[in-house]
Amino acid sequence: MKYRFSGSMTPERREKLLRVLHQRQSNLAVVMENVQDPHNISAVMRTCDAVGIQDIYILTTKIPRHEKFGPKSSSSAAKWLTIHQFDDATACFEALRKKYARILTTHLSSDAVSLYDIDFTESVALVFGNEHSGVSEDIRALADGNFIIPQMGIIQSLNISVACAVSIYEAYRQKKAAGQYDQPSMSAERQTELLNEWGFKQEDPL
């Protein structure tokens, strides 16, 4: 396929953006429930971009809708991601169910599985909760189960951005070992859509 860029861009920059797109993982997503600090959201976005996650879901049922995401913290990662914002949990999960086979929440419970027992080569969405109260009971009831990050300390909790980074880098490790970054996982239509959003103009059909 051939694309031209609307404006000045070096060939190196162009090739980097195309390579990034081809390594995006369409079967992995992050959901944040009522996360209050925009800097936490921005930090999560930056990590998601780093491991090839394109879709982020932001659910705000108990706090005002976020208008911006701290561009200094995210290093403008938000402009390269697809951000889905919801203020209704049912609508959010209906959208998730259409794309992901399993939805797991971070929650310390007797039935929680270890992060390292999750098969990230399959389709998974991970839900991270509020900084103070974690994932709500209502959201846990909508999900397929809970997972924990094994910890050896007294305080059994991590900052949300740290917890997310640990979790999705485990996903990266598994997916990389399985060769899932070696071929595009997105449809040609979605690739074209994102390329247009990023400033590319299609010259030849996919």
UniProtKB/TrEMBL annotation:
One GO term (biological process): tRNA guanine ribose methylation
Pfam families reported in the protein's UniProt record: SpoU_methylase
Residue stretches making up the tRNA/rRNA methyltransferase SpoU type domain: 28-169
Gene3D superfamilies in alphabetical order: 3.40.1280.10
EC number: 2.1.1.34
Function text: Catalyzes the 2'-O methylation of guanosine at position 18 in tRNA.
Name the UniProt record assigns to this protein: tRNA (guanosine(18)-2'-O)-methyltransferase
Origin species: Sediminibacterium sp. KACHI17
